[in-house]
Design a protein that fits this description.
The complex is a heterodimer of chains A (about 550) and B (about 40). Helices cover about 80% and strands about 0% of the residues of chain A. Chain A has about 550 residues and is mainly α. Chain A folds into 2 domains: about 400 residues, Up-down Bundle (Sodium/glucose cotransporter), CATH 1.20.1730.10; about 120 residues, no CATH class. Chain B is about 80% helix and about 0% strand. Chain B has one domain. Chain B is mainly α. Chain B starts with 7 loop residues before the first helix and ends with a helix. The chains are: A mainly alpha (about 550), B mainly alpha (about 40). At the A-B interface, helix 5, helix 9 and helix 12 of A face helix 1 of B.
């Protein structure tokens, strides 16, 4: 990147401060309308189509869309765009299959969280499903929150001109503190409203910047000629890949979409929609946003490759183009869009993690039933504590936490997406099948991912089978000590451990290293739900337990 | 100078897929609106 002038940095910093001011103002307005627990965790089921629609999509796309997706097409040309149909197919499933069924179901059940939906759908007399789901959500979300705060800190420090370790710390503290404060004050409503503001900012930036840049380049024809001159493979859908490598790449990219129905921070937006009419309207809004943002990001990467061929890191293309192509005020807005994509996800994940602790653990599992006012105060303090933990992890850069992030999208997707689809669209699954699906999804994700990385890390991969058996034994002992498991629950744990070990064997024997772990984990989790439910029928008396 | 062009697959991926998707989404929305209008 060429050096940026000091006056440009000053202007960008002023825009950034204004952007943070808007977030704080929205948080304050939302706080004034938040009076109780359901208000805090689900905005009192009052969201309109725009806030529910944009919030669901903006919270699902983290800094990945303005950094990673841009880097994909910068690096691979047009073939780097395969993530777009993958993600959009995920959106289609979410808004046309999940949303219209989940909103009325959760309203009838009185469910507040994803865990609530699962436990009330199948019954959970000894809190087995609630504890399992909460543990998976917490592990994945805490890693996610810390990683996003790290990304926000880096983006803030570079756009505000802070330098070195001190600059990074200041960036993390500013970005994370503001979003934690906003989420803590206004809860779900503040998250949805700030998501709407930030989601629109991201969409406008990703539509306007590539159009302007293509015009500057001399039109679409010039873009194609420029890409072809760098590498003719940039102009094909396969990018020069052949055979199993091509299919593994394409299926893996399309497979990203399988995760969307399982993201708690995404599908709770549908639960918060005011009525069925809002759900119908949010379908169009979410799909248009998705097309604009995914293809906009892809075009930024393509144009960036031609305009900035010497840029070392393709993921920085949007920021580099913003600082070099447009007026500093617009550059500030574009950089605010980059940070928006990160912070809209942080706030949503922060709230889900906090709801898992305050609502699912404290209120429901520990039975600390409280009045609406206490629930609100508990929720606010939990967000503050979780946010502070996230900031501390981001600052200390604890490696173990960031290791969990590698599994977060696939882990959540495989553990919950098949389950939610089965919960809404099919009978014939019971709570034991649900337990097997969550454990299988998580286990297979980890085993397969380690299998894909086996060439670079063979020692860890070799340990998977016995670590799986140890984990299963630990779960069985814990379930026994807590007097929570019956024979069918134990069968579910054994089935999940068996499928995990089989997947570990498969990826090793069949050389399936090119296949993204979410794909096998999703289908094996669905299979586990159906198979375990078939062999562990629940009697009517037990069902009403 | 060599003339470059997108392959057929790249055309599908880059603009045919999103265009078809947007058209289908609009058509579905119109269908819903007409249906709910008729129900009323």
């Amino acid at each position: 990147m060429t050096p940026v002038e000091g006056s440009t940095l000053t202007t960008v910093a002023v825009v950034m401060v204004a952007y943070l001011g808007v977030l704080l103002f929205i948080g304050w307005r939302a706080a004034k309308r938040t009076h109780g627990g359901e208000d805090f965790h689900l905005a009192g089921r009052s969201l309109g189509a725009w806030s529910a629609g944009i919030s669901s999509t903006a919270s699902s796309e983290s800094g990945w869309v303005t950094l990673g997706a841009v880097g994909m097409t910068f690096t691979y040309g047009v073939s780097g765009l395969w993530y777009a149909p993958g993600c959009l197919l995920g959106y289609l499933v979410n808004v046309y299959l999940i949303a219209p069924r989940l909103r009325p179901l959760s309203a009838d059940q009185g469910s507040v969280t994803l865990t609530d939906v699962i436990t009330r759908r199948w019954g959970d007399p000894r809190n087995v499903l609630r504890v399992t789901a909460t543990a998976i959500i917490l592990v994945c979300m805490m890693g996610y929150v810390a990683a996003q705060m790290t990304a926000a800190g880096k983006a803030f420090s570079s756009s505000l001109g802070f330098e070195g370790r001190g600059g990074y710390i200041l960036g993390v503290v500013i970005g994370a503190a503001v979003i934690t404060l906003v989420t803590s004050l206004g809860g779900f409503r503040a998250v949805a409203w700030t998501d709407l503001f930030q989601g629109l900012l991201v969409a406008i930036a990703l539509i306007a910047l590539p159009l302007y840049a293509i015009a500057r380049l001399g039109g679409f024809g010039a873009l194609v000629q420029g890409l072809g001159a760098i590498d003719p493979n940039f102009l094909s859908a396969g990018g020069g890949r052949l055979g199993p490598v091509l299919w593994g790449f394409v299926i893996g990219q399309l497979g990203i979409g399988l995760g969307y129905p399982g993201m708690p921070h995404v599908i709770t937006r549908y639960m918060a929609a005011r009525d069925d009419r809002q759900v119908q309207r949010l379908q169009v809004i979410a799909m248009f946003w998705g097309v604009a943002v995914f293809y906009g990001a892809g075009l930024v990467g393509l144009v960036g490759r031609v305009m900035l061929p010497n840029l070392a890191d393709g993921e920085q293309a949007l920021m580099a183009m913003a600082l070099q192509l447009v007026h500093p005020v617009l550059a500030g807005l574009l950089l605010a869009a980059v940070i928006s994509a990160i912070l809209s996800t942080v706030s949503s994940q922060l709230l889900v993690a906090a709801s898992a602790v305050s609502y699912d653990v404290v209120e429901k599992t520990l039975g600390q039933a409280s009045d609406d006012r206490r629930s609100l105060v508990l929720g606010r303090w939990t967000v503050a504590v979780v946010g502070l933990l996230g900031i501390l992890v981001a600052l200390s850069e604890v490696r173990l936490v960031f290791w969990f992030v590698l599994f977060a999208w696939s882990g959540l997707g495989a553990a919950f997406a098949p389950l939610i689809l089965l919960a809404l669209m099919r009978r014939g699954v019971n709570r034991h099948g649900a337990l097997a699906a969550m454990l299988t999804g998580t286990g297979v994700t980890v085993a397969w991912k380690l299998g894909r990385d086996a060439a670079s890390n063979p020692e860890i991969f070799a340990r998977v089978w016995w670590v799986t058996l140890l984990a299963a034994a630990a779960i069985l002992v814990l379930g026994q000590l807590a007097r929570a498991f019956d024979a069918a629950d134990r069968a579910a744990v054994v089935a999940a451990a068996s499928l995990t070990v089989i997947s570990w064997w498969l990826v090793q024997q069949w050389g399936l290293h090119n296949l993204y772990e979410l794909v096998p984990a999703f289908f094996l989790a669905g299979f586990a739900a159906l198979a375990v439910s078939a062999i562990t029928p629940i009697s009517l008396e037990e069902r009403s337990e | 100078m060599e003339e470059h062009s997108l392959t057929f697959g790249a055309h599908l991926l880059l603009w045919v897929f999103p265009l078809v998707l947007v058209v289908l989404v609009i058509a579905e929305d119109l269908h819903d609106r007409l249906k709910s209008g008729a129900d009323r």
